[in-house]
Design brief:
60 residues, mainly alpha, 2 helices, 0% strand, rod-shaped
């Protein structure tokens, strides 16, 4: 019985599992950030931007 080979295989499986979990977390975080960008471009933000443009005409 080669216990060193078994330990190496277990470490490879462990690191592979960790990599999968990290990749899933990155994917979910990326989707979360993408959803936030849709909320940032909402109607209220656009109206605020328009009001700033109107105020900007007074300072030109």
């Amino acid at each position: 019985m080669d216990s060193k080979g078994q330990a190496s295989a277990e470490f490879i499986l462990l690191f592979g599992g960790i990599i999968v979990v990290v990749l899933l977390a990155i994917y979910m975080y990326n989707r979360y950030i993408g959803d936030l960008s849709g909320q940032i471009n909402s109607k209220e933000v656009n109206e605020f931007k328009n009001q700033l443009n109107v105020l900007g005409t007074y300072f030109k």
